Amino acid sequence: MASASFKSGPSKRQRLRVLVCDPIKEVGIERLRGAGFKVDVRPKITSEELKAVIQNYDALIVRSRTKVTSTLIERAERLKVIGRAGVGLDNIDVEAAEKRGIAVLNTPEAPADSTAELTIGLILALARGIPSAVDSMKKGKWLKGRLKGWQLKGKTIGLIGLGNVGLRVARLAKAFGMKVLFTKRTPPSPDVLQELEAEFVSLEDLLRRSDIVSLHVPLTDETRGMVGTRELGLMKRGAILVNTSRGAIVDEEALLEALRSGRLGGAALDVYTVEPPRDMRLIQLSNVVCTPHIGAQTEEAQVEASKLIAEKIIQYLLQP
Ligand code: MLT
User: Which residue segments constitute the domains of the chain, with CATH numbers given?
Assistant: First the structure.
């Protein structure tokens, strides 16, 4: 028995080919090779080049750079699985893949701590004016008297979404002594409510009561533009908006207007509708703290994403 399954294993593996289309850590590539797959690594492959070779592969691994469109999927004759080393699936036409029986796997657990930590970092940066404080020091200025901030303790944070990242932000916010409100599609478990000492509220209630509103939902047809003029108008005057999820969840024109008019006190953004952003109006506002989509850009998150996606693909492709 044992030798029969040993014989069939390697021969199946040797036929399987994986294409890595975006930069991922070596550890996952080594695992795939160790499992016997033939792995090609082309982290700069263009969409035209990918179209020309896609029919040769059983598995694709992408991050956010590669767009896996329905046109690409149509040509993917032997593709069985698309692995996303990370969370967001908005660069993959999941419906088109599923129609063709191609599995789409991701690693939502991998960057969750890093993204949650960045979220708190951005809130602190905005609360204490850290970017301008650093900038002024580098320019040889001592602006102690002008740099007045506010503390997190005692503030109310409203989390839209309480998944992998939202839950971690809630825990960190609680440790800072903040009151946590959250809204999500499905009711939370009593354990979560007890652990976080948080309130599960409607979106409107959350917007009205929070000093800080932070977004932690994926980009879908339902969430695209979910924070627009109406929602920003419901927020407390002077409140801040934090977005480390996906840019297109927020109507950026409406946000620009709310920040310019003083309706909102500030915004902390790691993500943009177009990346890199071509329109710099939001980014150049003095009450906006911004980073270039670095939520998952830590050594730990990238190693974990690479390892996990490799393991999930191996398990999927070698299932009996
Ligand atoms: C993710 O969805 O994994 C993160 O936003 C990181 C990224 O896409 O680069």
Answer: 10-108+300-317 (3.40.50.720), 112-290 (3.40.50.720)
